[in-house]
Amino acid sequence: MPTITQFEIFVKVIDEGSFTKAAQALNMSQPAVSHAIAALESELGVTLLVRERGKDLIVTDIGKRVLFQIRNILNSLEKIDQEVSLEKGIITGTIRIATFPSVTAHFLPKIISTFQQIRPNVSLTFKEGSQEEIKGWLTSREIDIGFVVLPCDELNTIPLVKDRYLVMLPDHHPLLMNRSVCLSDLENEHFIISNAGYEAPMIDLMRKQKMTVNEKYNTSNLNTSLALIKEGLGVLILPELSLKYLAYPKSNIRPLETNHYRHIALGLPSIKDASRVVQLFIQITKELFE
User: Fold this and answer.
1) Which CATH number fits domain 91-159+261-290: 3.40.190.10, 3.40.50.11720, 3.20.20.70, 3.50.50.60?
2) Tell me: domain 165-260, CATH 3.40.190.10, correct?
3) Each residue of 172-215: pLDDT tens digit?
4) Cα dist from 211 to 107, 126, 208, 216, whole Å
5) Would strands 93-99 and 214-219 be described as parallel, antiparallel, or unpaired?
6) Is pLDDT of 54 > 70?
7) Among candidate residues 239, 231, 235, the one with its CA nearest the CA of residue 261
8) What is the distance between the terminal CA atoms of the chain, rounded to a whole angstrom?
9) What pLDDT sits at residue 159?
10) Per CATH, which fold does 1-87 belong to?
11) What is the model's pTM?
């Protein structure tokens, strides 16, 4: 029968993306990690990973399905440890949390500080990514809980805060004469689109209202977006929290007149099946936002 150690090594190899990095993280030799994976594959009678020198590690289709079940097994064992510790009067465990940049910058430090003061024996680990990445990590059980943007129908969610949308305009733009901007004012403007998808809900709303949307530039870096705006090459829609620490003149920013907001929430596969420490994290985080 496969062992729990083999399961843990297999998961670590997937998460780290290589045998070498997994060996370093586990404080093992690389041959020992390779042997453990080979033994697991032999025990199961299937190929879980395809590894070729100089190429990225490939998880086979059966490897992905097995990985999902192994994560569930390891998560269940973690819950058992937590229940046993609780019976002994100690709350321990690990919470794997996914977040995105504006939450990381504005909310996470306070949440961590408060949680660790209350439960110092619980470890918190973090992974930052896009909304699609976070949803994927939650679905695959790679993380326990994440910060998501609503709507998010595929997960159980706990709403936390709403974030209004703003428009960043270049110098001398005619819309700077207005105290606020309507979506209809932005029709035919050259849009700078962020790969992070900050403005996606507003762009979708414009299209639903049959407005013309001119996506002129796509960027993966907000500093690049700012440089394009300063050169008068387009406008950018961003949620307010994402703008807080950006070096851009406030005089060139206008609120977007709309009843639509970016709603930030906690998301997880099942609130009912969440471990004790994850439920505690939900409780503490909700209290901080009330």
Assistant:
1) 3.40.190.10
2) yes
3) 999 999 998 988 888 888 988 877 667 777 878 788 888 888 78
4) 35, 39, 7, 15
5) unpaired
6) no
7) 239
8) 49
9) 94
10) Arc Repressor Mutant, subunit A (1.10.10)
11) 0.71
